[in-house]
Amino acid sequence: MFKGLLLTKAEDGATKAAVTDIDEAQLPPGEVLVDVAFSTVNFKDALAITGRSPVVRKFPMVPGIDLAGTVAESSDARFRPGDAVLLNGWGVGEAHWGGLAQKARVTADWLVPMPAGLDARQAMAIGTAGYTAMLCVMALQDHGLAPSSGPVLVTGANGGVGSIAIALLARLGFEVHASTGRTGEADHLRRLGAREIIDRATLGEPGKPLQKERWAGAVDSVGSHTLANVCASLRYGGTVAACGLAQGMDFPATVAPFILRGVTLAGVDSVQAPPARRLAAWQRLASELPRDLLEANTEGIALGEVIGLAPRLLAGQVRGRVVVDVGQA
Known about the structure:
The chain contains nine helices and 15 strands. With 329 residues, it is of the alpha/beta class. It has two domains: 2-114 and 297-325, Quinone Oxidoreductase, Chain A, domain 1 (Alpha-Beta Complex); 128-267, 3-Layer(aba) Sandwich (Rossmann fold). Strands 3, 4, 5, 6, 7, 14 and 15 form a seven-stranded mixed beta sheet that branches. Helix 4 (186-192) links the parallel strand 9 and strand 10. Helix 1 packs across helix 9 (306-314). The longest helix has 23 residues, at 120-142. It is globular, with a radius of gyration of 20 Å.
């Protein structure tokens, strides 16, 4: 038996969440059994736990799209007991039991060997949010963006993706502008590397199809009017890496930025990213993300605190990253 956060559906359709004892025999099939040390709480996890969005595809479900720990058992030759591993994406926590439990049985192809220089807690301080941020940085670089191109905007700057994107881009030498609804956190964003702080209200309302050219690139985790205004404000040939929908799934824009300024809208998916790109992103995170900034951007909680934190995260009241010590139930 082990402790885990289990989601069930009540007769009225409501999602019920509770930390409970789980029998190892209940775990879904997979080639590798992992003793989970740490997990995280992401935006998607909070949606699943509160039931505010149909993230969970079947019940009962252990949420948690991230996990890090050590291999306990493996029928796959690539992994041996004692190996340090991490996992994010692949529908874990949505269609397959996830990381907010002390054990997880998963498909071997989903696992990434822990990169040199990272431990389990640091990997989860990065988590899907930081991994997504790196994929966004890689997408911008793939499209030729360099520090000499001009300033780069990061929206949702106080969130998990945004905060780590700021740190990564600043470390690479970019001038980073940060858009946030919590301007009181400006000092924290500047410590991460932001040069200019922008109130999200200036981007969150309907805007003109084309606006003043301000940024050479952007990382957007917000969507909706914010993404439309960002596209309309990019410099000629600019690129925005879009990875989220905190404001909404809609995209109320025109084709003007794309056909008149040659703007590129690059979609970034973290869930199904190919293993080679996934590994490259994690290796870069291990070498490029400053550890002191990572720690300052991270809050640690016990498994038993996750349910109470989820509504706060959805309300935008959580700064940076949250690491869950699943051993503390």
